[in-house]
Amino acid sequence: MSIELITVLLFGSFLLLMVAGVPLVFSLGGSAVIGTYFLWGPDALYAVGIRTFSSATSFVLLAIPMFIFMGAMLERSGIASDLYAMMQKWLGAVRGGLAVGTIFVCTIFAALVGVSGAATVTMGLVALPSMLNHNYDKGISLGSIAAGGALGVLIPPSVLMIVLGLYTNTSVGMLFMGGITAGLVLVALFTIYILVVSAIWPHLGPAVPVHERASFPEKLVALRSVILPIVLVMVVLGSIIAGAATPSEAAGLGAFGATLCALVKGRLTWTALYESCKITLRLSCMVMWIVFAAAIFTSLYAAVGADQLVRDALSLLPGGKWGVLIGMQVIWIIMGCFLDPIGIMILTAPLFFPIAAQLGFDPVWLGVLFVVNMEMAFLTPPFGFNLFYLRSVAPANVTMADIYRSVGPFVAMQALALALMMIFPGLITWLPYTLMR
Which residue ranges traverse the bilayer (predicted)? Predict the structure, then answer.
């Protein structure tokens, strides 16, 4: 059986199961198990167990549940609402200031939780009513929350980067450091867009009325809400950057620190602990099972010679090695409209990264480019996850069409950032390789 026919049958069965409503893990794993059985017989199924066990015993994966617990506990400690109140006092007098403050809060929250859903839902509950009550345009309000929430997959500690490092044999710490500068580029672009648009069309992001503005002493007092999050970020990321802890060990520090934060704020209750553990169990199991299923799928596809097929297909693109790189980005953008980022990563990374390495591209740079691309996937219709997270907490007068329209300019900013990082690789590689000298 030719590799082309195997590709059609394997991906065809996977997509058919997805369209039929079968969850990703069963669609991916089921098609791989069935394919293994019919290609090599029942004895080959032993390889499925071996490959799954190999993935399950990876030390890197230990960081995932602890970072998720860290985010869940911080979400229940009320840090996000305190941060937004502080930003509202400092930036409310500026046109577009509430939307910019939302981006800043999402940036800090992203450095605490490692996933996008938590920041999107939390800001949807905290920031959206405030912006709409202050007559902000729906597009600016919704778009800033959706785009800011997506920073959770890029700014470390990122769960997606942890899994990416595992599957591409790339240093998670280096990816984290590259994600810091890449995330700051996106934050800058989002901020500039909001401020420029609000300056040109003041009705889109009006300043807070004078009687609602905080005095300077009130602003100083509000800064107390930043202390705990900043200290926790410095401990977690600082320990990784300094080489004092691995990402898994830093995740343990983060989980402990988040519990202390909740205790200090008087919100460490048995209910909060139980809910945080329940969310951690549910999300960790989801991620782990997707990892196992995708490991089986990619092992099967690689064993039948997929790497050569992909290499031959990409070599047909014009533009040499840069044409191949752009082709990879386009494939990721298209897949991001329909599939889960972790699934996309595990399907494509084992095929694309070795090819990119042979062409001389830096794996850390390519890894961060991939994550930026997947950040776009959280906003691109029809299945951008942040769009549905936001809809679940938005008021009844906010329609799905409103949310779709709101993300357009922010997706354009993400695409601009992706292009800038491809043209100027130092935007990603400067920090990791400077600190590693």
Answer: 14-40, 52-74, 94-127, 139-167, 173-201, 221-244, 250-268, 280-304, 324-352, 364-390, 410-433
